[in-house]
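Section handout, structural biology tutorial.
Before the tutorial, make sure you can parse a SMILES string by hand: atoms, branches in parentheses, ring closures as digits. In the record below the ligand is zinc ion, and the chain has 305 residues. In the tutorial you will relate the predicted structure tokens back to the input. Do not try to memorize them.
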Amino acid sequence: MATKQMVIIPIYWGGWWATRGPVGRSAAAEMNGILQTIVGGRYMDCLSQYGIGRGYVARSYVYPVDPPASGFTDSMRDYVFSLAINQGHVPTPGDFNLNLQRPFYCLIVKPGVEHLLDPSLAPDVNSGAYHYSKNYWNGGPWPGGQVCWVKGDTTIAGTVQRLIHEMAEAYSGAGEIADKCQGAGSVVVDGVTVPQYWSVADNSCCPEPDPSPIGVSFSRIGVYVQVVRILFGIIGDGGGLELRGPTPVPVDPWGWLTKGELKNAFERAESMVEQELGGDDQARREGLRFLREFKRMLQAPEVRR
Ligand SMILES: [Zn+2]
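Predicted structure of the complex:
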């Protein structure tokens, strides 16, 4: 089957997305980067049976007005979609070649804000995200269009998983294929933790996880790179940028972490080092030693103030 390129168009709802993130990047930029790894990588390959191929993340938009803390309704959701698409903050369906591409608009809501069901306005606590069809925009019809909304999770990694679940299902034409593999748990693909989805062709959940690092031996420099990547991945889920004037700027690098947050970050990093380097005892010990040294350095008085 000829496949169409998947194009994710993220629309971030709330100024939070422009301000919170690892040093030098906003949470939106961090999320776009992770989504690009997935949509451009082998996660997509079992979807080709459903006519979906590898693609990319298009120009995204941060709508700076926060959703109401009391929750967002479907009409508010529609308003933000219309504003972002019809005012050209993101590419419109008319900008794509729909014979070759599958634009997938996703409204990604600031963490901590609930979706309110229509018409009861009851909090929709059981859904983290939802995909549905949207067949029109101001420029005309958009046959077969699909969009989703995603409630921001407490971590970027969690938000990514919610969105990827919807992406796998939206254009598959095969139903809730990610729900069908929920019991199988998530897997790491191209270094990102993602949900699996059902592959009719394979009669199993897909894709396969990355090969296990067990048995692989690491060079010393490889160990350091791995530890730094783990640590920054964790700290990246926290803060780091602040809106000063119109531009998010890094705020006091390292200093934004409280003592408790720093402790938690290192505890998580330690267990990830154990897990990822565990297959090579020498690498594991070297990784843990390097991590402790890094921590001591960050806690030195001249850095901690
Ligand atoms: Zn689902």
